[in-house]
Amino acid sequence: MRIAIVGGGLGGLTLARILHRHGIDAVVYEREVTRSARAPGGSLDLHPESGQRALADAGLTERFRSEARPQGEEHRILDPAGRTLVHHRPDPGSFAGRPEIDRGALRDLLLDSLPADAVTWHRRLVAVSPHPAGGFGLTFDGGHRADCDLLIGADGARSVVRSLLTDATPSAISTLVELTIRDADRDHPDVAEMVGPGNLWGMGARQVLSAQRLGDGRIRVGVSLPAVGHPVDTYRRKRALLDLFDDWHPRLTALIHAADGSPAPRTIEAMSTDIRWAHRPGVTLIGDAAHLLPPVGEGANQAMRDAADLAVRLAAAPADPDAAIRAYEEAMFARIRPIAEMSARVHAMMLSPTAADDIVRFFAPRPTGT
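Structure tokens predicted for 2-polyprenyl-6-methoxyphenol hydroxylase:
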């Protein structure tokens, strides 16, 4: 059986790795030219029940722990006046919670666990043609072609494979502007101390100013705004961002002043919380291709959980992959809906007029027994 995984992100690579552990070959088709062509991205907190569970199925727990940063769980929430509302300090030596790992380090970990020929680079899928007798023909940019018996779309928000199963498309939910402070410890020690080893969120009325420490010492700064009324092109200069926060405390706006280079704005999208499709033989979706979630910490974790669940089912029923896909899809739909609904609520809360109070309540410890 020829298995094609379209997309070499965390979901696609996790799927390929677990299949490989079970002696099942698969080819990952990745649009990037090389493994180093993609910007490394930010940091992720891997959850025990999803991302960490998938890495355990992949046999990569020890490798993960050698790269992860439990201290990265530390987070602070401030109001626009610079007052600290929440300061969570984790056990810096414990992996029992949700340790952070840089997205690039996690992707490298997965790539290094695969045979060299498991990933075919520079293959951007542009069309899929079902074969009359089953399976699919894949056409890539540049005229490259391939055939497969089983097709798994791990090709993200703008998935080409998704169109075989549903006409659902993502919708804009916010505007995100990103900046980077390359060496805060040396050049901006006050900013570095404020951010600490983990995450910081400044919560205002319908606007968030955040910062995240990466494993190499860089700090990623983010500005989140409602999609309506905040077109992306407005925020390509620091001055436009500083005008948004002109009444915030200078210790918070220092995050923008300290950033190197120009802001990078983009639109954040999500799928409907009730996304599902009718089963079709020989094809399915995982990760953002299946259920694009708001960026509140679940996207990568659920993509990896999808990959692990699908791989284990395929390995358990190699003679009946269609039954494995059906079982995976039904379990995934049931698991994802409450997570998608929760993610949508949290995202809306963070951009509400009362975000600071709402987030403090969200993080407040619940009494035992409630």
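The chain has twelve helices and 17 strands.
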